Amino acid sequence: MNKRPNILFLMSDQHRADVAGFAGDGVVRTPTLDELARTGVVFRNAYTPSPICIPARQCLMSGQLPKTCNCEGWIDLVPGYRTFAREFSRHAYTTVASGKLHHIGPDQMQGWRTRIAPDAEISDAYIEDSIESEFARYTPPAGAGKWSNQRELEEARVADGPYQQFDRRAFTATMDFINRYFEDPEYHRPGYHRPLLHKLSLLQPHYPFFTDQAQWDTYYHRVPIYVEEPCDHPVLSLSQQNRPVHVSEEAIRRATTAYYGMTTTVDTYYGRVLSRLEELGQDLDDWVIIYTSDHGEMLGEHGIWEKTRFYEGSVRVPLIIRWPKRFTGGRVIDENVSLCDLYATLCDLAGIELPPGLDSRSLVPLLEGTAAGWRNEAVSQMGREHVMIKQDDLKYQYYGEGIPEVLFDLAQDPGERLSAAGDPAYAEPMRHFRRRLAELGHGLNADPDYVNAGY
């Protein structure tokens, strides 16, 4: 039996798919990602199963949509869930995660054998036998908790914030680990006799909008900015927290500058990891390397900030898969895919049997150049009622009873300016989407026996 491949899983947080050199942005500097794209395969239409951090990451780990894995909000997977990390650990992989996983329940490992520089933290809701009256005694001080979108923009500046510090720790921990795993210069007992699945998961370019002086100076006068008014829709017109944002063009420029700077920072970290692996004698053509993010960032497009919306800037994510010894690089795939699909893909690439009941499809046929039979669909969900279904170039959105449905035809309206939901020319696609919505367990005619997406 051939040895299973080493896998390096690179992940950022809140990186919108079009802010990268390989995606056509002529301002941002992402040389590492650009090289991965040049020698790997880019999925142009990759979507998050939920445009918010916690459920997106639970769906990624489980290979299931929010409704399937019961993570329809800020909810963790139940302990012992059959995540891809747990599956790979069962097959003798050394599974290591460095940085952000955003698990908030008691199962902080979720199948990983080792976590280094973790964000391990259990939320109040998961504290066993917590005494409600005790928690009620302590009122947070004024100003504590999450900033509003408004303040996030107003605070954009040069600063070494907590996320910058966290990412340095995660990067350093990864460098320390690979030095020990492949060389171990002190003890001379490297541990690379087993295959490695290593995930480096960074917090940037997630707000707060902070970056260093060098990046600020590089980008301040060059970044493109969105100066737009929200559309007239009860959901799509509001930023996260359901509040409008009213800031100056200067504040938008400052926030965008910091965002571009953070994007370059994470790219630099990834490049240094890849260079060190090569210095340690690793042929990266033998490795499977994946890059993605959990969701995007609106950056003021359509007057919206953060995520939680089904606009492309929020729900579409970058995705690169590189394994040049098996797949021809330098290609762009246009089919709709999901972060859920990475579970099946990883298992396929490693020769591991896929568990049943997943909403995950192997991307290997697409990587091999075969799109025949591919169900060209991606599904995303926010909370219990907000659902997006994208099929081919049409993107349908359901927001609950009494709220207007939305249909964007991205082939005709790539800027997502005009909903075609009421256009008679789209009556048949709308009927089809409503049927599919019901099959997925949503809407007035939801299938009461929903189990999974049926892939």
Structure characterization notes:
The protein has 455 residues and is an alpha/beta fold. It has 2 domains: 7-376, Alkaline Phosphatase, subunit A (3-Layer(aba) Sandwich); 385-455, Arylsulfatase, C-terminal domain, CATH 3.30.1120. Helices cover 29% and strands 16% of the residues. The strands form 3 sheets. Strands 1, 2, 3, 4, 6, 8, 9, 10 and 11 form a 9-stranded mixed β-sheet that branches. The chain has a 4-stranded antiparallel β-sheet with strand order 12-13-14-15, with helices on one face. The chain has a two-stranded parallel sheet with strand order 5-7. Strand 13 and strand 14 form a beta hairpin. The longest helix is centred in the middle third of the chain and has 31 residues, at 249-279. The protein is globular and about 70 Å long.
H/E order of the elements? EHEHHHEEHHEHEEHHEHEEEHHEEEEH
Give the CATH superfamily of the largest domain.
Answer: Alkaline Phosphatase, subunit A
| CATH C-level of the largest domain | Alpha Beta
Helix- and strand-based class? alpha/beta
Query: Average pLDDT value?
Result: 95
Taking the sheet with the most strands, its summary is: 9 strands, mixed
Alpha plus pi helix count: 13
Radius of gyration: 22 Å
Unreliable runs, pLDDT <50, ≥5 residues? none
